[in-house]
Amino acid sequence: MNRTISDLKRLINLHRVRGVMQGFIAGFGCMALSACSFVSASGPSTRSVNGAAVKTVANADIRIIDVSDAVARRVLAGERTGFFAETLGDGAPIGSIIGRGDVLDIAIWEAPPAALFGLGGGNSLLEGAQSTNALARGTTLPEQMVNSEGRINIPFAGTIIAAGRTPQQIEREITNRLSGKAHLPQVIVRLIRNASSNVTIVGDVTNSARVPLSSRGERLLDILAASGGVKQPVGRTTIQITRGQTVAAMPLSLVINDPRQNIRLQADDVVTALFQPFSFTALGAVGRNEEIMFEGTGLTLAQALGRVSGLQDQRADVRGAFVFRLENPAVLGLAPGTEIRTTPDGKVPVIYRINLNDPSTFFVAQGFPIKDRDVLYVSNAPLADIQKFVGVVASSILPVITVGSIIP
User: Fold this and answer.
1) 363-379 burial, b for 16+ CB within 10 Å, e for fewer?
2) For the chain, what percent of residues have pLDDT higher than 70?
3) CA pair distance 229, 372, nearest whole angstrom
4) pLDDT tens digits, residue range 60-112?
5) Helix H segments across 88-145?
6) Most buried by CB count within 10 Å: which residue of 15, 59, 129, 140?
7) Rounded CA gap, 195 and 316, in Å?
């Protein structure tokens, strides 16, 4: 009797376990179909990214562009718009315009008989009068610094406006003011210290400094040499020039290899030497999710994929590789007059779509440039999300199956 009751209890428990398992199995098919909607992922799916074209970023329309050979060439050609020669232009040599803070050397000559400044280094009027037959000699005044009002003071000539004028113009005015006071005065004005036309150089250089410009027309490499050169390897150094509100950056190696980029600098330019300032961020189903630094000489898409250890075989969607970039509208190949909404800084949010399932894409990837602040993203394959969901379900029903195997 006791054995019959015990067998009956086991039979009831077994039916309960089987009922639970049947419930899991019945609902598994329905839940698997919607697994991608609630299983955690490393980012948006390929379908979600492809649907981003209907959205905006900072009131600018998002554009999705398939990477092809023509697109790669257009983007590569567009990089030249950021070069120094195209962006800043080759400036004119600094002239002899005097500015505030400049230091002038002024020499005044009189023909004999000198009456005002004297001869032979003497300063008395008597000595000049006694040297009637002597040759004329010049008198050099103490160094004259142009004051904050742009003026200098000359004995017997008074206050002279110097800022904004050439040395020749200053010479003529001093000569005119001394006429009638000195005997046939001749004046020579020379700029000996330039305080108003300078270039500031900072960053990874041997000596940060303010370097004065001259009428010779110093170029970028001249200023770098004057600061002692860069401290880091040339191939990993980027030079940034700030001129007013315009900022342009180029690898130093390209400046050396392309003489056109060795532009003539202008007053108040700021030159900054940066060590490896460029980087892109890799996210999603790639070997490494992190920010990757790269050299100023540039990086291609193929090289970028190599630096992140490629795609994860069990997760990646080979048709779901994307490069997110705020792009210059000029490289989009739009017809003239096409209206396009941009971000406040004049950029267009672009998603470059890459199909790595196409073998020809790997040739294109060797010429498609990766730019600073790009985001390289590879989405999960749909099957990978289903497999993840299966793993979650399996871990949930495993205890039930274990109980079922124990109860006969």
Assistant:
1) ebbeebbbbeebbbbbb
2) 76
3) 25
4) 889 999 999 999 999 988 776 678 988 898 876 776 678 888 889 999 988 87
5) 125-130
6) 129
7) 60
